């Protein structure tokens, strides 16, 4: 029983009565909360914990559920400094002329058909396929710091980083991708309600301070000097990162500083995940890095693909741990095929269904043969027109659930 002793300390009449009443009310509330706490405690003991539908610790455990991106509504991004830095000179006119407009419709129609085939094959292999919502990427939006139109919801790997039972929404670094998360929110909320953890990384302002306005293009005589000095179009003004600059291998996660991921962004991920994970910041002989999965790719326990054109400066980290380092063959995609936002090395941007099955490009015969020699069954198809939008099989997806457990491999 709650006992309250009223002591006169100079209050009179109504004021004293009011304060005594307040104390009594507070005491009753405390008593209620105490009893409520006990009740809630009992309820909690009988509740069945939610089993998260999200669980993925690496790139090779048996795949059960995946998000595949959408072609619908894809628009060419405005040709801002951060986009220009990553665009080959021969595609500048395309981007300048079509900025804020849809990609060529005939090309998009072929890309959409390829992605539908991709989804069908995944389902035939026993994988549950989920898709983002269709949103209007043509809308112009304004923040206090910039104005832009959108791009697409084609590459979920760029924006969603799945670590164990947690989905991390990446902040991104392109202004045209600021609101891209909206296409995935209905899926993420569904996963959250079912027990998944959900974190949104701090959204950057994307003000002018985040970008080096004087960053040279590929024809600038200072370009190689900038590369040698490890300078990038994004500054350290605030954390930014794309999820695709992180490669998972259990408790070890490999990251790279790139045109869209800065050291502050990598540090944020490191602090957020804590001591349970080891974040290894790698660097490569790559003058224009963006997204690690066409440069270094972990395909099985102790096996890593390393791009022969972009050697890893820390490759001994893998060799000393007994890993097999495989250099994939050079891509065979013809120069005539448009790659508006990517390189030919999408040939190694594959999707592992497990350690014995891989989805890869039917036309990249040398890569197909490489997997066969490794004892991995290639499941082949072409998404060449989808490649033009900036990604391969890995980029076009985010694995939501793989059957396995969290382990250390280094």
Automatic annotation (TrEMBL):
Physiological role: Catalyzes the biosynthesis of guanidinoacetate, the immediate precursor of creatine. Creatine plays a vital role in energy metabolism in muscle tissues. May play a role in embryonic and central nervous system development.
InterPro entries: AmidinoTrfase
Keyword line: Membrane, Mitochondrion, Mitochondrion inner membrane, Transferase
Subcellular location, record wording: Mitochondrion inner membrane
Keyword rRNA processing attached: no
Species of provenance: Saccoglossus kowalevskii (Acorn worm)
Name of the protein: Glycine amidinotransferase
Annotated catalysed reactions: L-arginine + glycine = guanidinoacetate + L-ornithine
Subunit structure: Homodimer.
Pathway the protein acts in: Amine and polyamine biosynthesis; creatine biosynthesis; creatine from L-arginine and glycine: step 1/2
PANTHER family noted in UniProt: GLYCINE AMIDINOTRANSFERASE, MITOCHONDRIAL
Family according to the record: Belongs to the amidinotransferase family.
EC number, as in UniProt: 2.1.4.1
């Amino acid at each position: 029983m709650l006992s309250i002793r009223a002591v006169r300390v100079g209050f009179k009449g109504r004021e004293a009565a009011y304060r005594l009443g307040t104390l009594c009310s507070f005491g009753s509330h405390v008593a209620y909360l105490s009893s409520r706490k006990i009740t809630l405690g009992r309820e909690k003991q009988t509740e069945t914990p939610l089993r998260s539908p999200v669980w993925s610790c690496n790139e090779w455990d048996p795949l059960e559920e995946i998000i595949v991106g959408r072609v619908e509504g894809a628009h060419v991004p405005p040709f801002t400094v951060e986009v220009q830095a990553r665009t080959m000179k021969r595609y500048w006119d395309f981007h300048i002329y079509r900025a804020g407009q849809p990609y060529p419709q005939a090309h998009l129609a072929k890309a959409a058909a390829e992605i539908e085939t991709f989804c069908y094959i995944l389902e035939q292999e026993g994988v549950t396929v989920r898709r983002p919502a269709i949103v209007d990427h043509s809308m112009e939006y304004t923040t206090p710091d910039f104005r832009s139109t959108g791009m697409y919801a084609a590459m979920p790997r760029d924006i969603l980083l799945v670590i164990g039972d947690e989905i991390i929404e990446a902040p991104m670094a392109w202004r045209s991708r600021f609101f891209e998360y909206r296409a995935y929110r209905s899926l993420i909320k569904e996963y959250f309600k079912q027990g998944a953890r959900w974190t949104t990384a701090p959204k950057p302002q994307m003000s002018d301070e985040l970008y080096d306005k004087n960053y040279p293009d590929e024809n600038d005589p200072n370009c190689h000097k900038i590369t040698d000095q490890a300078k990038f179009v994004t500054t350290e003004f605030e954390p930014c990162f794309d999820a695709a600059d992180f490669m998972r291998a259990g408790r070890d996660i490999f990251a790279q500083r790139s045109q869209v991921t800065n050291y502050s962004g990598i540090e944020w991920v490191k602090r957020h995940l804590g001591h349970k994970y080891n974040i290894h910041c790698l660097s490569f002989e790559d003058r224009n890095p963006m997204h690690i999965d066409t440069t270094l790719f972990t395909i099985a326990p102790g096996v890593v693909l390393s791009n022969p054109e972009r050697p890893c400066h820390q490759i001994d980290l893998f060799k000393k741990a007994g890993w097999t380092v495989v250099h994939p063959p050079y891509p065979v995609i013809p120069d005539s095929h448009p790659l508006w936002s990517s390189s030919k090395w999408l040939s190694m941007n594959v999707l592992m269904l497990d350690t014995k099955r891989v989805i890869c490009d039917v036309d990249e015969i040398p890569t197909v043969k490489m997997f066969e020699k490794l004892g991995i069954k290639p499941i082949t198809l072409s998404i060449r027109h989808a490649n033009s939008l900036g990604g391969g099989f890995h980029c076009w997806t985010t694995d939501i659930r793989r059957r396995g457990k969290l382990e250390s491999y280094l």
